[in-house]
Request: fold
Amino acid sequence: MKRPHEHDPAGEDSPAFGRQMWFWLAVLAVAVLALWLLSAILLPFIVGMAAAYLLTPFADRLERMGVNRLAASLLLIAIMVLAFVVVILLIAPVLGSQLVSFIDNVPSYIGRLQSLIADQGRPLLQKLVGTGFSPDKSISDLVTQGVGWITTFLKSLWSGGRALVSLFSLIVVAPVVSFYLILDWHRMIRKVDSWVPVHQRDTVRQLAREVDAAIAGFVRGQSAVCLILGSFYAIGLTLTGLNFGLLIGLVAGLITFIPYVGSMTGLVLSLGVAIAQFWPEWTPIVSVLGVFLVGQFVEGNILSPKLVGESVGLHPVWVIFALLAFGYLFGFVGLLVAVPVAATIGVLVRFGLKRYLQSSLYTGKAD
Reply:
């Protein structure tokens, strides 16, 4: 028999609990509204919070080894800033020049692919879709639509992050925010925990642990996967002799953060460049394809199971929708917060569904 003061979160079905659930949903809605209103100035703060979330476990480990928390925070921020500066000084100029050259060569690559399709596939395409099919016109329309969509999406990212935010503010503000958050992380968690109603504290703590597990499993694990795959693709494509292999490989690795879409985008882009560059030689084209096949095999069978795991509770379709929707609505800031918000919503929805299945509304049994 349960004592009067004991709390049974699994079987709770009370008006007070319902009011509290609506309260937290309202808090989430207010947070989304604030994100929409302040997205133009939030970029350095979101970047700082993301960096602090990723680096806090390392600070905890250093603290357990006897390093002062202040010194550990300063060391991690210094390493982060140094790595960023090295990337900017060493890699950014190369990527910038490749990007400019790639944009200049896009029309010639498209023309080359159009001519190949027109020469090699005209009889088959006309047999399939009719004699009125014009490869040059149809492919040009398709490319124009695709470029228009990509341009619109990139403009939304740019407009969402450009106002009142410069590279200087990102470099200066983000490390400062990260430093203070790493230094006071556990103190802030304890403070927020003290605000939670006492009789709901166990439930909220359990939900917070589930949210943290989902975010940590996906963000930290997927970040490592993106870094490893980006390096592999960049080196592999460069060794095949593919033009702009470094740029395409790194971009393909970075957008692997979007499940399936990232890898397919990198594969299609690299194969398109390879065909335009190497045709009719098949060996380098197959080599480019082999790089992506090996990368996908390693990701699916080694990297993702080890680094991301299967228990994060984020379905790939839900992640894709969240990234695209938040990126379109809130710009680059939206991309940064999409996965944490998606993880939080997913945990709350599963929790609400569990409560519904245990409630009298579903079972039909009176309490």
